[in-house]
Amino acid sequence: MAQSKEDPFLDDVEQAEEEEQAAMTEEDAPESVEDQIESLRAERDAFQDKFMRALADAENARKRAQRERTEAENYGGSKLARDVLPVYDNLKRAVETVTDEQRKEAAALIEGVELTMRELVNVFSKHGIQVIDPQVGDKFDPKQHEAMFEAPVPGTKVGEIIQVSAQGFMLYDRILRPAQVGVSSFTG
């Protein structure tokens, strides 16, 4: 059943719409549009803020991953390096204890030990390991040295290295093993 144009219900709806439009003044219409624009701007700003925060979080995660990857590359082998240091120490002791007579008798063997030690130092250098080689008379540095003992030695100053027991090692900017030293406690 089609409704005719003279349907009272449709006439009431149309009349209500006309009254509503007539009730709106020219000032009312822009306010509602301005309110809508302001609402959209606030929503846009909120989305932009969320986007910028997400972008910053992603950048921070990228930097953190890069830093962790670099640390893993540089310091991942530190346990192995620490375990190899006694090999270096033993080779160094072996070379240092050889007398001139022993050097003449077993020249090839001693030369082989020295070559092995040099190659080990080259491998250390290739992987960022540097020797900390304090000398007697140097100032004690607790960041690089470990005091094994203190002794009052005349002619020295307090905190001066008086003996080097073992060299230390750094892996890039981190201590693998501090140099083991004796320190003067002489105050005279």
From TrEMBL:
Q: What are the subcellular locations of this protein?
A: Cytoplasm
The UniProt function text for this chain reads: Participates actively in the response to hyperosmotic and heat shock by preventing the aggregation of stress-denatured proteins, in association with DnaK and GrpE. It is the nucleotide exchange factor for DnaK and may function as a thermosensor. Unfolded proteins bind initially to DnaJ; upon interaction with the DnaJ-bound protein, DnaK hydrolyzes its bound ATP, resulting in the formation of a stable complex. GrpE releases ADP from DnaK; ATP binding to DnaK triggers the release of the substrate protein, thus completing the reaction cycle.
Query: What PANTHER family does the record point to?
Result: GRPE PROTEIN, GRPE PROTEIN HOMOLOG, MITOCHONDRIAL
Segments carrying the region annotation (Disordered) are: 1-36
Q: Which residue spans adopt a coiled-coil conformation according to this UniProt entry? A: 37-75
Tell me if Flavoprotein is a UniProt keyword of this record.
no
* Homology family: Belongs to the GrpE family.
Short name of one Pfam family: GrpE
Q: Which GO terms describe its biological process?
A: protein folding
Q: Where is the composition biased (Acidic residues)?
A: 9-36
For this entry, the protein name equals Protein GrpE
Its cellular-component GO annotations read: cytoplasm
Broad class of where this protein is predominantly found: cytoplasm
Task: Report the source organism.
Answer: Roseovarius atlanticus
Keyword set for this entry? Chaperone, Coiled coil, Cytoplasm, Stress response
- Molecular function GO labels: adenyl-nucleotide exchange factor activity; protein homodimerization activity; protein-folding chaperone binding; unfolded protein binding
**What does the record note on quaternary structure?**
Homodimer.
List, alphabetically, the InterPro entries matched.
Answer: GrpE, GrpE_CC, GrpE_head
Task: Provide the gene name from the record.
Answer: grpE
Looking up Gene3D superfamilies in the UniProt record yields: 3.90.20.20, Head domain of nucleotide exchange factor GrpE (2.30.22.10)
